[in-house]
Amino acid sequence: MEAYTNFAEVYDTFMDNVPYDEWADYIERMLKEYQISDGLVLELGCGTGSMTELLSAKGYDMIGVDNSEDMLEIAMEKRLNSGHDILYLLQDMREFELYGTVRAVLSVCDSVNYVTDEEELQEVFRLVNNYLDPQGIFIFDFNTEYKYREVLGDGTFAEEREECSFIWDNYYDEEQGINEYELTLFVQSQEDPELYRKYQEAHYQKAYTLEKIKNLIERAGLRYLTAYDAYTRDVPMYDSERICVIAQEYGK
């Protein structure tokens, strides 16, 4: 079961509770604190381009990288409708390539958790450092161990909409730090509204501690700057479910 294929079609529907506008405002404020108010910005794991579009509207020259062709197709439809000059690249963040450097890199919606091997995540961070301008900024978020263990755990979640529904079976292996969730989707047929097609996908994420993330950042050559509880200015706590990290280019 491959991730983000059929789910791409209904991804935005089920993500309508994500406050993308607030997150975009937060990222813009952070970037401006480091004197980045325009120029090239890369988003890793851009998905359907929701954040990419918002930051493009704020005046940044956006590049979006994702390894799901289905998700990028939707992102390019949004680009066609908005008229924004966004470059989308079908690439794996573990080995992405750019033609030059960028002023900032960002990654939201726990995309880094999908890199389940520590050495591979360190390589992602090394590539980020390589493609950042001198003193460039890297902003990303990640899901915490607490969220996987206490919030998701071995639970089942479901949501029903008129045009689509899903069942999410979650399994967390605390010893391995791997979170697996199996999605069963029921998507309404565009040809026959009475017909719903069933799809299944499996997703895997790795639980990282902030200390581990900091260690991987520094081993990759970046300078760790700070971390916040989700998209706030609060210090991360033991029960933080999402943490935002800010790092900086530190020489090549």
TrEMBL record:
EC class of the enzyme, as a word: transferase
Signal peptide segment: none
Protein name from the UniProt record: dTDP-3-amino-3,4, 6-trideoxy-alpha-D-glucopyranose
Entry keyword annotation includes Transferase: yes
Enzyme Commission number(s) from the entry: 2.1.1.234
TM region positions: none
Lineage of source species: Bacteria, Bacillati, Bacillota, Clostridia, Lachnospirales
Domain annotation Methyltransferase: ranges: 41-136
GO biological process: methylation
Organism of derivation: Clostridium scindens (strain ATCC 35704 / DSM 5676 / VPI 13733 / 19)
Keyword Methyltransferase included in the entry's annotation: yes
A family per Pfam: Methyltransf_25
Record key words, sorted: Methyltransferase, Transferase
One GO molecular-function entry: methyltransferase activity
Listed InterPro entries: Methyltransf_25 (IPR041698), SAM-dependent_MTases_sf (IPR029063)
